[in-house]
Amino acid sequence: MNGSARKPFCPRHPEEKSAFVARADRAGMASAAFMRALALGDAGPRARRRRPVEHQALVQALATLNRVGNNLNQIARNTNRGMDIDVPQLRDALHQYHQVIAAIYEALGMEPARDNQGQEPGWP
């Protein structure tokens, strides 16, 4: 070029832009990579597919995580007051915690880490 900066592609109408961005999102690509894929048949060497995110599932997981956190906080408060730990209640809260973490990974389109996953830590 002759020293002037390139202008980014921008559809003239907001409806066109939102439709284009939505198609890029559904394809799991950034808008620029999606444009390269359409125009050149290849998204380019640096393009990476984005994992789909299920927003509603994340909202539900967050609500459940807040409830589990509240339960764990009540258990800790009672323990600090000298009361005995309600082991079944603690197990249930920890089980719910692991379920929420799995739901978050699923909503993000990711695999959970393989560290313990609710099992006893230590030697295999």
Give a short overview.
It contains four helices and no strands.
What do you see in this structure?
α1 (14-27) packs across α2 (31-40) and α3 (55-80) packs antiparallel against α4 (87-107). The chain has helices spanning 14-27, 31-40, 55-80, 87-107. It has 4 helices and no strands. The protein starts with 13 loop residues before the first helix and ends in a 17-residue tail after the last helix. Mean pLDDT is 78; it is low at 120-124. It is an all-alpha fold and 124 residues long.
Mean pLDDT: 78
Which blocks of ≥5 consecutive residues have pLDDT under 50? 120-124
Q: Which H/E pattern describes the elements?
A: HHHH
Question: Helical region count?
Answer: 4
- CA-CA gap between termini: 61 Å
What is this structure's SSE topology?
Elements: H1 14-27, H2 31-40, H3 55-80, H4 87-107
Helix pairs in contact: 1-2, 3-4
Which key phrases capture this entry?
single chain; 124 residues; mainly alpha; 4 helices
